[in-house]
Amino acid sequence: MGPEALGQLMDEQAGALVLYARQWSSVPEDNVQEAFIKLAEQKQPPPNPVGWLYRVVRNAAISSSRAEQRRRRHESVRAARNPAWFLPEQESNLDREAAALELQALPIEEREVIVAHLWGGLSFEQIGALIHVSSSTAHRWYCTGLTKLREKLGAACPRNPTIPS
Amino acid sequence: MSQESHDPELAIFARNLSGLIPSTGTFNRDRVLFAAGQARARGSIYLWRFAALAALFSGVGIFAVDRMQPTRQPAEWVVYVRVEVPVKSAPETLADESALAMAGRESMEDSPFSAYRLQQSAMRTGLEGLPSSSASPSTGEVLSSEEWRRGRFSEFLKP
């Protein structure tokens, strides 16, 4: 894969991938960086680079979370250094810190599906293949998680949302 | 996205939620691109190293095979060549040599400064009779200073 395509992929997916890796890992940027370097090393680029990246990032993030469990004594320090999940500039009327907290409170499978679908743009078929479940299961988890979030955030949906599709 | 549109309110909330822009944290795009380039170059370096090692081993192998072969003794060839040498008869040779000696002597006697004539002159008149370097080139006579003064140059200027 050439540098232009790699750069474009980074611009489009880096934030969503970091957020996706953040569901397990405390060093999500490193996981995403490793994934992009692995992608650059591929002689033949994968047919679906975005799905491939999510799979690699997921594996790396889960591996690093397992390693982190052995260093639990640093948990409080790490939590204190945990950066914000979302940028201040946003195109939403939701509170970004509250949304991040409520997202963290969701079960991992629901979080994973919501992040991969909402910010990563993956279809439920792709998510099902990624986490080895059927697309209907992935969709059910997505709806369940989203409903919980809406209830907890007390989101009064705007009558005329100005969010770009 | 078709599956999520069963509940319109949920779909609106999902769009609202997706308006939050995820933070990239400390992810540095330029650093990752640089590292990706390094990783790709590393692959080509390995290829070159492998090619260099393969060439080295094959060279060593060829050298070893060449050294292990028994050395060939250089072949010696003796070639006989018959050369015909022309042989002259003895009487003809002697006759040629005497003819050459006579011709040499005649040519020597013609010259006024020849050793033969100088020897004859010395025998007749002694050392004083020998010509000086100012002798006439044609006759070999010694010219005195008087004769030079009288202008006997005309002899030398004759055509």
Describe this protein's structure.
The complex is a heterodimer of chains A (165) and B (159). Helix content of chain A is 66%, strand content 0%. By secondary structure, chain A is mostly helical. The longest helix of chain A has 21 residues, at 49-69. Chain A is globular, with a radius of gyration of 16 Å. The two termini of chain A are 29 Å apart. With 159 residues, chain B is mainly α. Helices cover 58% and strands 0% of the residues of chain B.
Which tags fit this structure?
heterodimer, A: 165 residues, mainly alpha, 66% helix, 0% strand, globular, B: 159 residues, 6 helices, elongated
- Continuous helix count of chain B: 6
Order of helices and strands of chain A: HHHHHHHH
Instruction: Name the pair of protein chains with the most residues at their interface, and give those residue counts.
Output: A-B, 51 and 33 residues
Query: Which consecutive residue ranges of chain A, at least 5 long each, have pLDDT under 50?
Result: 157-165
Which range does the strand content of chain A fall in? under 5%
> What is the mean predicted local confidence, pLDDT of chain A?
84
Helix run count of chain A:
8
* Structural class by helix and strand composition of chain B: mainly alpha
Average pLDDT rating of chain B: 75
Distance between the termini of chain B: 133 Å
Biggest pleated sheet of chain A: none
Shape of chain B: elongated
Q: If you compute it from the alpha carbons, what radius of gyration of chain B comes out, rounded to the nearest whole angstrom?
A: 58 Å
